[in-house]
Amino acid sequence: MRINRARLAESMDALGRIGETPRGGLNRVALTDDDRRGRDLLVRWMKEAGLAVTVDQMGNIFGVRPGTEARPPVFMGSHADSVPTGGKYDGQLGVLCALETLRTLNERGARTPHPVGMIVFTNEEGARFQPAMIASGVMAGKIPLEDAYNARDRDGRRLVDELERIGYLGSEPCVPRPMRAYLELHIEQGPILEEEHLPLGVVEGIVAIAWSRVTVHGVQDHAGPTPMRTRHDALVVAAEVVGGVRQIARKIGGDLVATVGRLDVVPNIPNAIPGRASFSVDFRDPRESTLDRALSMLDRVVRAAAKREGVRAEVEHYWRVPRTFFDREVVDAVEEAALTLGCGHRRILSGAGHDAQYMAAICPTGMIFVPSRAGRSHCEEEFTDLDDIEHGANALLLACARLAGAGPATAGRAL
Amino acid sequence: MRINRARLAESMDALGRIGETPRGGLNRVALTDDDRRGRDLLVRWMKEAGLAVTVDQMGNIFGVRPGTEARPPVFMGSHADSVPTGGKYDGQLGVLCALETLRTLNERGARTPHPVGMIVFTNEEGARFQPAMIASGVMAGKIPLEDAYNARDRDGRRLVDELERIGYLGSEPCVPRPMRAYLELHIEQGPILEEEHLPLGVVEGIVAIAWSRVTVHGVQDHAGPTPMRTRHDALVVAAEVVGGVRQIARKIGGDLVATVGRLDVVPNIPNAIPGRASFSVDFRDPRESTLDRALSMLDRVVRAAAKREGVRAEVEHYWRVPRTFFDREVVDAVEEAALTLGCGHRRILSGAGHDAQYMAAICPTGMIFVPSRAGRSHCEEEFTDLDDIEHGANALLLACARLAGAGPATAGRAL
Predict the structure, then answer these.
(1) Global confidence as pTM
(2) Is the C-alpha dihedral spanning B177, B183, B185, B188 positive or negative?
(3) What residues of A are in contact with residue B264 (Cβ under 8 Å)?
(4) Who has the most CB within 10 Å: A246, A360, A408, B368?
């Protein structure tokens, strides 16, 4: 049993046209009109595949194919939202490989004791509403539903209002439900698989992630007649901290990555001394203790920079996802699928956060990585070769069938 | 002859309500709907004052009160646009004091050989369309009309289209016309008058100004799986230059002021390494040679920071206004008005750019400053005491009457 490569490629093309950028990337930010159009297409396909489709309170879309027994389902899934100038593989690929797996099971008339389903998660990227992975976070009980509903985008719009506006505020409770397993296929977003010429990564876990928000309150004034000695410039402080964050990564070294990805200045015009600057800090490391150390260094850097400029600054450490270890049985199932397919693979740790990170708190969870060209993602240049995608999708199919308890008959055909 | 303080205060209140912020400041950015509403009110008042009102190709509004002879007019003026979270004095005050002067001349039946008029300039702040003072720049022949028309705001809208949209794309050529003099009353926007307890500044000139734009082209990538060693982060470079600009001011010292007021990051989300960062640099100093030195230091700082991060960066030195010396006769007329009024005053240099800077290339020009509380402006806390405003407006009236050649009869009543 193998997936249909041409059908998968066709679906990738069709979904990738919704929110496509002029340079061939994807701009389909969560809960925008394009996100709705993407969701509508997915729901149509899911229904055409005979799945029972439901939407929960966070807009997560579930589609389930019945099993032969009343057992908890195996779910596959990923997200369909992108960053503003992102690529066509991050998220979308996992959703479409899950769909292709279900289509293949249908086509082959495969009977599995456990039902098999797919999930399309809401706002995984966190580009519009923070934090990222907010919908799986609510499902796992790690983020209160009310907090998620009240998350606001740059323009002050609430997540719940945007969910309702695009017609995806569902009624199913967003809570942990019995699941046999959760399996997510995703692009690696790093350079390792490509460097080692391996089409497949057997993901063992995800690094710990900490997000902070720093707000510097300076004194807005005219850039001309205000002497240097009397200035309290919020951006000067923010800039010093951006440099400081880079220094923290250098001092701690190892696997720590540190990024200031967002910075907003007020009033942001050439001839006013910035009165306010706020920015994000993203730290990731396999070890929790390293994150603790980085966060306290950040506190010190902010305090020192603010003091030098005579301004007030606030640091909020508002989101943290602990180091995740995936389930041994699921990881083994992925590895066995790779062996069955005879394709090169290695165990690997994810440096990016995924909904699988929260799902691991609900049920046995694992992930499959496919290579990213030049390790690049969250950009329009994001690309994965279709040969690699085919390997990944087949591994997803085989691992899923195994976890769903496909009997010797199906397994025989499958393997 | 003196202005009517209550009438002036009433007009300030009425115009200040258009675009008023919740905290009592002003948000009436150029060519927005609120700018149109403000302009409409001014035009109504100008017509009620019997002025002949015309609008030129840059949306500058002219209102002229006839003289007794066919001579070039004396113009007063300023701008009616504000920065996004600005105050109710910057610009607006000069326009309303000009109007109050004309109303007073009417009321007293003053006859002047030279006509007396007022100008409301378009987009002085440069908050929406760069550069600042764009409309007087065109008038003085320093900025091509086509360049000004093609200036775009953040959303890509062209200045000319917005002028047309709000109904202020006039037909009068925006070129130098014969003018006896140009006089602009403005808040100081600096701390000197307040520190010295003087209600009036006799402005001798304006510092030289240089605006640059720096664009850093990094490599957008995922903030998680991208190792620190392979990053090319545009914001890290920008931040280093922000610190470098502060250092340039420190090293050169003296009167140089240096500001990065605007910084835009792409894609500006927490979990993507910034692929692009662009920012403004504003240098001002009384000496041209100091600006030359600062600009070449900026070039070096950008080059070094970009090289360290392995990225490309462009620096455009796109706008420069030379040091302006105001006309001796006009400066003297302002000083004599202050002496006549018996109010404390001093000669002063402006650290802020004004339309008067370009007007000085067209005709004899001068300015009157009134104090700014705590020296603050371009912020909602901007404030000038009404007593000081009254002194300033009366000085404008007297200086204007003198320059317009008010005869002994008028002068007698005037002084």
Answers:
(1) 0.87
(2) positive
(3) 268
(4) B368
